[in-house]
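Document type: protein sequence-to-structure record

Subject area: structural biology

Format: plain text, a pair of labelled lines:
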Amino acid sequence: MKVRKAVVVAAGMGTRMLPASKVIPKEILPVVDKPAIQIVVEETVASGIGEIVMVLSPGRTTVLDHFRSAPELESLLERRLRHDLLEIVRYTNSLARFHTAHQHEPLGLGHAVLQAREAVGDEPFAVILPDDIFDGARPCLRQLLDVAERKDAPVVALMRVARSEIPKYGIVAVEPAGPRLHRLTGMVEKPAIPDAPSDLAIMGRYVLTPDIFPLLAEGKPGAGGEIQLTDALMALSERRALYGCEFEGVRYDLGDRLGFLEAQIGFGLKRPELADRLRAYLKTVLSS
């Protein structure tokens, strides 16, 4: 299985991050000094995929604008001989090849993915939710792609979550298939804790096959009155093997206020020019 395209779903209204996301899409909110959407695109490119379908809400083009040239800014930096900053700005212009699809109504993740059907075509593809960003020795998406290529099958990212967190996620039933690898035998979207089949939750990375699209098109609204990707995945697992990979690395939930703060600290500590001062500041806060 060779995956050449990724679908990045950036059509949500960002209600969990209001008021910051009222005008600025949450995907543009920075992690230190880099927009979350850029971190996601860099992960995609580092995983070997250079073609991206961005699913957007109509009129909210800021996410895509970030990857377009900025002639006035570039000219200003050039005149001021700020070649270091000019390189940073121009770097984003050629990161990947972008296509767009639009979700006109907020009808759920499954519906958003379905809008990319024409742009993806009849080939396997990745799905990325930019609320989730990862930090690890290997990109999370690359870990999934390795499994998909080896098994010639769809794969989702999995993470064990605390029992109290179970109702926030799609939770899977599994049987072992190898180290950190599971074959999915069932899944439930945001179950009550007693109804959860495990503590393994689906995170925001998927490698899917095009036969998911008819299942999404036939899907009926599920939890929350939305077309759930989880329901289509469950139907897909009845037709072919579907795997879950417990990724290696750290995941940050940028749609959650605490997760957003944790990401600032986690990525800030990886920056040599910031790490020592940030550690010193955190010590003063913790000791006060």
Notes: Residues 5-255 form a domain with the Spore Coat Polysaccharide Biosynthesis Protein SpsA; Chain A fold (CATH 3.90.550.10). The longest strand covers residues 170-178. The radius of gyration is 19 Å. The chain has a mean pLDDT of 93.
